[in-house]
Design brief:
The complex is a heterodimer of chains A (about 180) and B (about 525).
Chain A: H1 3-13, H2 17-38, H3 42-58, H4 70-89, H5 109-112, H6 117-126, H7 129-141, H8 145-152, H9 156-177
Helix pairs in contact in A: 1-2, 2-3, 2-4, 3-4, 4-7, 7-9, 8-9
Chain B: H1 2-16, H2 29-40, H3 48-206, H4 211-236, H5 248-252, E1 263-282, E2 292-311, E3 314-336, E4 342-344, E5 350-359, E6 364-372, E7 384-408, E8 413-439, E9 442-444, E10 446-448, E11 453-454, E12 461-478, E13 481-493, H6 502-506, E14 507-518
Antiparallel strand pairs in B: 1-2, 1-5, 1-14, 2-3, 3-7, 4-5, 5-6, 6-10, 6-11, 7-8, 8-9, 8-12, 12-13, 13-14
Helix pairs in contact in B: 3-4
Classes of the chains: A mainly alpha (about 180), B alpha+beta (about 525).
Chain lengths: ~180, ~525
C-alpha cells in the first residue's frame, strides 16, 4: 500500500469531499466485480454494491493500514455484505445437490482466449447460490474450506463438495457454451 | 478430473482481472450517484460518529433549554402558591418551634426538680449511712462492753463454782470431824457418867472421897479439846466473798463504769465583787464637797483544784487560786485659796503646799501636794481652787479553799452542795496618784511628793480566813471530763485598817466555773 493511498484515506476520514470521490472512483469497478460474482444478476449486484460501498466509508475509521491493504479490507466488507444479502434472500436452496452431467472441457488456449470476463461472470451468476458463494470464496477470494465453513456455518465437507459441484457445473456450462 | 477442476479455478481467477472498462463493469449511473450522495454526506464517511455526537449534544442542549424555559415558567406561575405554602409552612414551623421550646422548658424544669430530688436523696442517704455507721459503732461498743461484763461475770461464776466445790469438800471433812467429835463427846459423856457413877459409889462406900476434885480437874482438862473442835468448825466455814452486784442498767448502758472514780483534778475560775471605799481628808476642803467615795470592782481568780471521794457521793476538795486586779477612783474637791502656806522653793519658785490624806479599808496614805504660784497668777482669798484626783491601786489575791461537797444524781447531770473554808492573802502591789488643780478655769502647775507615806504598815499585806457555802451543778461533757459551775456565798474574817468599812468587804457572792478530769 503506497503512501499516497494512505494520505488519501486520511483525507477521506477528515471529510474531504474530493478525496471521497477519488477513493470511490478508484475502487468502484473492483468492488462492483465482486458484487457481480456474488449476485445472481446485475440488480442483485447493484443492491450489494450500494450497501457495501456505504458500509466501507462508514467503517473507514476502523481500517488499519499496518494490518493489510485497503483493497483486501474493503473486499472482505463486500463479501460479508453479499453473504448477508444472500442469506437473507436465497439461502434456503443454497446447498441443495443438483444432478449434473459430468463432462470434460478442452482447455486449449484457443478456446480460453475467446471467453470474456463478462461471460465468465454470467456463468458464475447462473450457479446456485451455495455453489457460487463457495466457488467465489475459495477460488477467487482465496478462503480456505475451514474459513468458509465457519463463515457460512456449514461443515468443511459441505464446503468441499459444494466447490466440487460448482466447478463441475461450470465445466458443463463451458462445454455447452463452447 | 480433479486436475481439470483445478485448472477451472485458476482460469476463472485469472479471467476475473481481465476487464475492459466497459459500462457493464460499473454500476448504473443512478446507483453510482446515489452511492456518491450517501458517502459524501457530512454524516457519512468516517464522520458519522463525530457528527452523531454533535447532534446528540445539540439535541441535549435544546432539551435542556426547553426544560429550563418550562421550569422557569412553571416556577413563575407556581411562585405565589409556593410562597403561600412556604408561609404556611413557616407558621406551622413557628408553632411547632414554640411547642418544642415549651416542652423543652418543661423538661428542663422537670430535670432541675429531679436533680434536686436526687441530690436530696443522696444527702439523705449520706446522713442515713452516717447514722448507720454511728449505730454500728455504738452497737460494737455495747457488744464489747457486754462481752467484757459477760466474761467477768463468767469468771466470777467459775470462781463461785470452785468455791462451792471447795465448800462441799470442806463439808465432807466437817461431817467426818463432826462424827468424830460426836463420838468423842459420847465417849466423854460416857466417861463422865462413869466417873459420876464411880463418885456416887465411893460416896456410898467411903462417905468422903477427894476424887471428885480430881474428876472435875479431869473434866476441865477436856474443855480445850471442845474449844479446839469449835475453832476447827469456824475455820472450815470461812465467810463467803461477796460478789459485786451488776445492775442491769449498767450492762446495757454505754457509760457503764466498772469502778467508781475517786479522784479528780481540774481548772477553776471564779469571780467575785470587791468593794473599795475611800475616805479622803483634806483640811481646807469646803463642806459641800463629798469626802467618801465607793468603787466596785469584779475581780477574777484562776487556779487548780483537787478532789477526793472517800465515800459514794461525797467529795473533799482543796485548791489554790490567784489573781491580780486594779481598783481606781476619781475624786473632785474644791477649797478657798489660803496664802498662809506659801513658801519659796530653793529654785526660787513660790509654791502653796497642802497635805492630803486618803483612807481605804486596808490602808491610809498621806501626801503633800503644792501648786506653783507664778508671777502672773494673782491669787487671793476670794479664789476657789478646784482639784481632780485620780488614784489607782494595784492588788493581788491568793486564795486556798478547803471544802466538802455532796453530789447527787445518777445521770450525766449532778447537783452539788458545797461548803468549806478558805485562806486569803491580799497584797498591795503599787499605787498611782495624779492630781490636776485649776483656778478660774485655768490649770495650775502642781508639785507633789515622790513617795507617798503609808501610815499603817511597812508592807501592806492582809491574811484572813473565810467560809463559803453554795450550790452547783456538774455535767459529764465527755468520758471522765466534767464541767462544773457553782454559786457560793462567802463571809471573810478580815481585819482591816480599823474595821471602819468591814461590812462591805466581808460579805459577797462568788461564781465559780471549772473543768475537771476524773480518774
Amino acid at each position: 500500500m503506497n503512501q499516497q493511498e494512505i494520505q488519501l484515506i486520511q483525507k477521506v476520514r477528515s471529510g474531504n469531499q474530493k478525496a471521497i470521490q477519488a477513493l470511490y472512483g478508484k475502487y468502484e469497478p473492483h468492488w462492483f466485480r465482486v458484487c457481480l460474482r456474488y449476485g445472481r444478476n446485475r440488480d442483485e449486484a447493484q443492491d450489494i454494491f450500494q450497501e457495501g460501498a456505504i458500509k466501507v466509508f462508514q467503517a473507514l475509521r476502523q481500517f488499519d493500514s499496518n494490518r493489510g491493504a485497503f483493497s483486501t479490507w474493503s473486499n472482505r466488507i463486500f463479501v460479508n455484505i453479499a453473504l448477508k444479502y444472500l442469506k437473507k434472500y436465497q439461502w434456503q436452496q443454497s446447498f441443495e445437490d443438483l444432478s449434473m452431467v459430468a463432462g470434460e472441457v478442452d482447455w486449449q488456449e484457443s478456446i480460453i482466449g475467446r471467453i470474456t470476463a463478462k461471460e465468465l461472470i454470467e456463468l458464475i451468476q447462473q450457479l446456485p447460490s451455495g455453489y457460487r458463494v463457495v466457488f467465489n470464496m475459495y477460488e477467487i477470494e482465496g478462503y480456505t474450506h475451514k474459513e468458509i465453513a465457519a463463515e457460512l456455518n456449514i461443515s468443511v465437507g459441505t464446503s468441499k463438495s459444494q466447490l466440487f459441484k460448482a466447478k463441475k457445473m461450470l465445466q458443463q456450462k463451458l462445454k455447452v457454451l463452447f | 478430473m480433479d486436475d481439470n477442476y483445478n485448472k477451472l479455478g485458476d482460469f476463472f481467477k485469472n479471467k476475473m482481472d481481465d476487464f475492459d472498462g466497459s459500462e457493464w463493469e460499473r454500476p448504473d449511473a443512478d446507483i453510482r450517484q446515489n452511492v456518491l450522495n450517501k458517502i459524501t454526506e457530512p454524516t457519512a464517511v468516517g464522520m458519522k460518529g463525530t457528527m452523531a455526537n454533535a447532534k446528540i449534544f445539540l439535541g441535549a442542549m435544546a432539551a435542556m433549554l426547553l426544560f429550563s424555559f418550562l421550569s422557569i415558567g412553571y416556577l413563575f406561575f407556581e411562585n405565589k402558591e409556593l410562597n403561600q405554602k412556604i408561609q404556611l409552612k413557616n407558621l406551622q414551623y413557628e408553632e411547632e418551634k414554640l411547642k418544642s421550646e415549651k416542652a423543652i422548658a418543661s423538661l428542663e424544669e422537670r430535670t432541675i426538680e429531679l436533680k434536686k430530688k436526687i441530690e436530696s436523696s443522696i444527702q439523705e442517704r449520706k446522713i442515713w449511712k452516717q447514722e448507720q455507721e454511728i449505730l454500728s459503732n455504738n452497737k460494737n461498743d455495747i457488744l464489747n462492753q457486754y462481752q467484757n461484763i459477760k466474761s467477768k461475770y463468767k469468771k466470777e461464776v467459775d470462781q463461785n463454782e470452785q468455791y462451792v466445790l471447795e465448800i462441799k469438800k470442806q463439808k465432807e471433812r466437817v461431817n467426818i470431824l463432826t462424827s468424830e467429835r460426836n463420838q468423842l463427846t459420847q465417849n466423854i459423856n460416857e466417861y463422865i457418867s462413869l466417873l459420876e457413877t464411880k463418885k456416887e459409889t465411893e460416896n456410898i462406900d467411903n462417905k468422903q472421897t477427894p476424887s471428885i476434885k480430881n474428876t472435875n480437874e479431869q473434866y476441865g482438862n477436856l474443855m480445850p479439846l471442845g474449844n479446839h473442835l469449835l475453832a476447827t468448825n469456824s475455820k472450815l466455814f470461812p465467810k463467803r466473798p461477796i460478789i459485786e452486784k451488776i445492775k442491769k442498767s449498767e450492762i446495757v448502758s454505754p457509760h457503764f463504769k466498772y469502778k467508781r472514780n475517786k479522784f479528780d483534778i481540774g481548772y477553776e475560775y471564779s469571780t467575785q465583787k470587791f468593794e473599795w471605799l475611800v475616805d479622803r481628808s483634806f483640811e481646807k476642803e469646803l463642806e459641800s464637797s463629798k469626802n467618801i467615795s465607793k468603787s466596785d470592782k469584779y475581780i477574777h481568780l484562776q487556779g487548780v483544784n483537787l478532789g477526793y471521794s472517800p465515800h459514794k457521793n461525797w467529795w473533799l476538795r482543796i485548791g489554790i487560786k490567784y489573781g491580780k486586779f486594779d481598783v481606781e477612783q476619781f475624786q473632785y474637791l474644791s477649797w478657798v485659796y489660803d496664802d498662809e502656806n506659801e513658801e519659796e522653793r530653793p529654785d526660787g519658785e513660790i509654791y502653796n503646799q497642802f497635805n492630803m490624806g486618803i483612807e481605804s479599808p486596808y490602808l491610809e496614805t498621806s501626801r503633800d501636794v503644792g501648786i506653783k504660784i507664778s508671777d502672773d497668777l494673782e491669787l487671793g482669798e476670794e479664789d476657789i481652787l478646784d482639784m481632780r484626783i485620780y488614784e489607782k491601786q494595784k492588788l493581788s489575791l491568793l486564795q486556798i479553799p478547803l471544802g466538802v461537797e455532796y453530789a447527787f444524781g445518777k445521770n450525766k447531770w449532778q447537783w452539788l452542795i458545797q461548803g468549806g473554808a478558805q485562806w486569803n492573802r491580799l497584797s498591795f502591789l503599787e499605787n498611782e496618784f495624779d492630781a490636776v488643780v485649776a483656778v478660774r478655769g485655768e490649770e495650775i502647775e502642781i508639785w507633789e511628793d515622790e513617795e507617798d507615806e503609808r501610815l499603817d504598815k511597812e508592807i501592806p499585806v492582809f491574811n484572813y480566813a473565810g467560809i463559803y457555802a453554795g450550790l452547783g451543778v456538774d455535767y459529764e461533757l465527755f468520758k471522765n471530763i466534767h464541767i462544773r459551775g457553782a454559786l457560793n456565798y462567802k463571809y471573810d474574817f478580815i481585819n482591816t485598817y480599823d474595821n471602819k468599812f468591814s461590812n462591805s468587804a466581808k460579805i459577797g457572792t462568788v461564781f465559780k466555773l471549772g473543768l475537771n478530769y476524773r480518774f
